[in-house]
Amino acid sequence: MAIGILSSLLASDHSSIVSMNLFVALLCGCIVIGHLLEESRWMNESITALVIGVCTGVVILLTTGGKSSHLLVFSEDLFFIYLLPPIIFNAGFQVKKKQFFRNFITIMLFGAVGTLISFGIISAGAIQFFKELHIGDLQIGDYLAIGAIFSATDSVCTLQVLNQDETPLLYSLVFGEGVVNDATSVVLFNAIQSFDLTHINSTIALKFVGNFFYLFISSTLLGVVTGLLSAFIIKKLYFGRHSTDREVALMILMAYLSYMLAELFYLSGILTVFFCGIVMSHYTWHNVTESSRVTTKHAFATLSFVAEIFIFLYVGMDALDIEKWRVISDSPGKSVGVSSILLGLILVGRAGFVFPLSFISNLTKKAPHEKIEFKQQVTIWWAGLMRGAVSMALAYNQFTSLGHTQVRGNAMMITSTITVVLFSTVVFGLMTKPLVRILLPSPKHLSRMLSSEPTTPKSFFLPLLDNGQGSEAEQGNRSVVRPSSLRMLLTTPSHTVHYYWRKFDDAFMRPVFGGRGFVPFVPGSPTERNGPQWQ
After folding, report:
1. Is a pLDDT exceeding 90 seen at residue 522?
2. How many Å apart are CA 358 and CA 110, to the nearest integer?
3. Minimum mean pLDDT among 116-120, 356-360, 469-473: which range?
4. Does residue 6 have a pLDDT over 70?
5. Beta bridge mates, 442
6. What parts of the sequence cross the membrane (predicted)?
7. Is the model's pLDDT at 275 over the cut of 60?
8. What's the rounded Cα separation, in Å, for the pair 301 and 294?
9. What's the mean per-residue pLDDT of the chain?
10. Who's near 420: CB < 8 A, 6+ residues apart?
């Protein structure tokens, strides 16, 4: 008896090792093929991983006689606890802070308010159409969850095509909105799950709104506090004088700690780790030695890159999970109908806020280069049509138990989510390159736009290092006109709010938490007092 149990355990362990070997080999294959397709820019690592995952799923499905299509069982913990944090943190760590906060109001308008509008449109459409289709026993909470699930965008394909040197405003809006959108969608989803929405009244609605803003603000503050704590510890103790390994390890662990603390207190880990990344790149990163800066920059970028490929590869393999498709096999037409309705709602929901909010944003702008042109609005609309891993993970959370379901309505939503993610990522992703070529301005227009832009990012690969020091110094040498009206304050934020923040930062924050110009100096250390720093 004991021997039989032991042998079955050993066989299970060996099958897990085989699965991991194949998965790692597939990851390597995605990277190599993605590199070979880099020049064409039609394909990217996301689409490549998705296609390879689907092809691998087909092969496994055939070899197992139709029993399974994936190597690993889907786990929400794997996604939310291990794969998502490095992706979101690296986004915050790399963000061009000056460009991001210059357009902060517009980014929040698109990322937060726009997501709420899209959520409302998709939820209302789902209630209207799905009840007529009789897809299953779905409650009001399920319909609202569908709105949150399909409001989460994935703008990776568009960001890989856009050039932030040529279109810094557009890149900043698409990038910033993507991160805030994901955070807002997850916060919405968590708020929906924490309330009994079967009997909605004004009290529950107010509590829901209050809980949403509480999660949003608390998560942001937690990320900022954790980032400042890491900066203070490294500045005061200065680990680099003894071991650069310790300060690199502390940066990585503090970044991950911010996410886990948010999960511990039932906050939004995405928002927390994103703002932790921004704060750590502004303060902590300048407090470590030169070699640690290079190490952390590449370590965070590499972890994010591998996690993204891992997610898309798995999504491609799980798309052919025979168990879920078998539940709805008697009504394939209805499944196609649900997927088509969801795609239509995504298109309408996206348009329902991009163009109106762009109009509102343009009303507050005077300079032509600060306004969002119609072609840029279309690009922003298109960038948010793709759906990815966040939508998949939220759908699994709502409609399955440990990745499995036998309920017809739940299986219908899971398979429809898979269809929407595959179709939007592959079809819309492949169409992104030619569409952006058509929509973006001509080189002459670009050169005029670039010359009028106050900040021109220097490198795609070193975005976190551009803090706009030169322009800030210039601002410090000239008087700043105080805004005489609210309209003037909104139309000239970079010459007012940013200026006063720089003064506060230099006077109070950097002396305590470090940063550029406040790097600790220890004789014999790798960091020189006035040594060359990456600009």
Report:
1. no
2. 8
3. 469-473
4. no
5. none
6. 17-37, 49-66, 78-95, 107-131, 169-192, 212-234, 255-280, 300-320, 341-360, 380-399, 411-431
7. yes
8. 11
9. 78
10. 150, 339, 342, 343, 346, 387, 391
- Summarised one tens digit per residue, pLDDT across range 94-147 is 887 877 888 888 999 999 999 999 999 999 999 988 888 777 778 888 899 999
**CB 86, CB 305: distance < 8 Å:** no
135 touches 412 (CB < 8 A): yes
Give CA–CA dist 103/187, Å, rounded: 22
C-alpha 517/C-alpha 535 separation (Å) is 12
Residue 268's φ and ψ, nearest 5 degrees, are -90, 110
User: Which of 317-331, 342-356, 452-466 shows the lowest mean pLDDT across its residues?
Assistant: 452-466
Q: What string of H, E and C letters represents the secondary structure of 396-451?
A: HHHHCECCECCCHHHHHHHHHHHHHHHHHHHHHHHHHHHHHHHHCCCHHHHHHHHH
DSSP notation for 99-117: HHHHTHHHHHIIIIIIHHH
- Contact 386/429 with Cβ under 8 angstroms? yes
Distances (CA, A) of 18 to 70, 72, 135, 418: 12, 11, 39, 26
**Residue 166: pLDDT over 60:** yes
* Stretch 417-429: mean pLDDT: 88
CB-based contact 56:65 (threshold 8 Å): no
Q: Which is higher by pLDDT, 221 or 178?
A: 221
The per-residue b/e assignment along 55-89, b for 16 or more CB within 10 angstroms, e otherwise, is: ebbeebbeeeeeebbbbbebbeebbbeebbbbbbb
Structure tokens at 306: 């591998």
CB atoms within 10 A of CB 11: 10
Residue 31, judged by CB atoms within 10 A of its CB (0-12, 13-18, 19+), counts as middle
- Extract the tokens encoding 230: 């890491």
Vertex 181 angle, CA 428 and 276, to 5°: 125
Indicate the residue type of 481.
Answer: V
DSSP 183-244: HHHHHHHHHHHTS--SS--HHHHHHHHHHHHHHHHHHHHHHHHHHHHHHHHHHHH-GGGT-H
Segment 490-519, tens digit of pLDDT: 444 445 566 777 888 888 888 888 877 665
SS3 for 321?
coil
Asked whether the predicted pLDDT for residue 213 surpasses 70, the reply is yes
φ and ψ at residue 401, rounded to 5 degrees: -120, 110
Find all residues with CB under 8 Å of 534, minimum gap 6, and list them.
Answer: 293, 462, 465
**Distance between CA atoms of residues 426 and 377, nearest Å:** 22
pLDDT at 349: 95
Give burial (CB, 10 Å; 0-12/13-18/19+) of 29. middle
